[in-house]
Design the sequence.
């Protein structure tokens, strides 16, 4: 199979779909790989390394979309990229379609087979291709939040961990999954007062066993969320409903009552955000202020640490990329029910129920769409 990786064009996105090491694995399996010139520059992987791994360097993304049977990316295809997708072509990348109707309709119109990293599952019901970036984003959320608390950034001027004789900041994390766990770990490491909230008592028990008395675990109800958010200095939104739009846990009314200079970091912004006042921002302009509350809603947070993120992502995606290339998409999806969960759009039909429901579109089960 001919596999291609274009340079990412989203604002301040420096990650790349395939590392030179991944290219070498693909070529060792007998596949052709095309890489757009400069695609790996942001992670310190230059064209010469890709050539040494067996790739062909091409001058433009158009060559890749025109000639390759499978396109491997990191972020969702931008409008100019969606226009180049074609019928029968495999797109393997993060999509986050539930809050993005233009992209959903663009993929439907292209006729491509779009497989989303974020909805591929494993035998334990986890999301193995989302997990590496969730780990990165969770850890970055505390770095970003600590910076936003500085007075020059609009924050209330608190040091996250305080100093002897001065109280530490109060950090509230909504969601105890991969993002929330990594955020809690970082915040506790900086000696903040940390509360994590979740609807799963089993997950709260696991977190209590993992972190002990340094972490406050609270069952999530509307009343509890409001109580803890209003007293927080930093709130991290870390909720996830796989493939679906994130629930709005913090209302506009709550935001108006929050402490002046407090900070909201919405890691769920790729799925629409879990604060009513959230809107996507970029690394170039990451924050805005609503009712004296600083909002950090960068939609591609891991892109800020592109080298770490790219290698972590490729470690997870490579086995699936190889399976798609070795077997073809139909056999790969037929043999791996977990990879099949990643199929969001195929041949003009929406094959992921939560995406169809989000946009009021007809839903076609993946098995039916691909003729299983």
Sequence:
């Amino acid at each position: 199979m001919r596999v291609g990786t274009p340079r990412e064009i989203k604002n301040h996105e420096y990650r790349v779909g395939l590392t030179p090491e991944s290219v070498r694995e693909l070529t060792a399996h007998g596949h052709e790989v095309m890489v757009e010139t400069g695609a790996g520059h942001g992670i310190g992987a230059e064209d010469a390394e890709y050539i040494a791994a067996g790739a062909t360097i091409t001058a433009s993304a158009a060559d890749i979309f025109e000639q390759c049977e499978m396109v491997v990316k990191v972020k969702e295809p931008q409008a100019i990229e969606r226009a180049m997708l074609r019928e029968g072509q495999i797109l393997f990348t993060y999509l986050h379609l539930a809050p993005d109707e233009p992209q959903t309709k663009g993929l439907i119109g292209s006729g491509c087979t779009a497989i989303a990293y974020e909805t591929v599952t494993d035998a334990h019901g986890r999301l193995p291709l989302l997990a590496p970036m969730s780990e990165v984003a969770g850890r970055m959320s505390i770095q970003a939040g600590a910076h936003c608390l500085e007075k020059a950034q609009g924050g209330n001027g608190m040091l996250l961990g305080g100093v002897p004789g001065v109280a530490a900041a109060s950090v509230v994390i909504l969601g105890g999954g991969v993002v929330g766990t990594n955020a809690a770990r970082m915040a506790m490491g900086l000696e903040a007062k940390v509360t994590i909230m979740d609807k799963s008592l089993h997950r709260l028990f696991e977190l209590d066993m993992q972190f002990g008395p340094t972490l406050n675990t609270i069952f999530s109800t509307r009343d509890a969320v409001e109580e803890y958010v209003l007293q927080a200095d930093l709130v991290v939104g870390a909720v996830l409903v796989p493939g679906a739009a994130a629930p709005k846990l913090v209302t506009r009314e709550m935001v108006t009552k929050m402490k002046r200079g407090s900070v909201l970091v919405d890691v769920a912004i790729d799925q629409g955000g879990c604060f009513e006042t959230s809107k996507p921002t970029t690394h170039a302009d990451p924050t805005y202020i609503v009712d004296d509350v600083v909002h950090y809603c960068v939609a591609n947070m891991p892109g800020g640490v592109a080298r770490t993120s790219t290698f972590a992502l490729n470690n997870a995606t490579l086995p699936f990329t190889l399976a798609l290339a070795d077997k073809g998409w139909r056999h790969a999806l037929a043999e791996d029910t977990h990879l099949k969960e990643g199929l969001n759009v195929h041949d003009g039909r929406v094959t992921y129920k939560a995406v169809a429901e989000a946009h009021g579109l007809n839903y076609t089960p993946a098995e039916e769409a691909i003729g299983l």
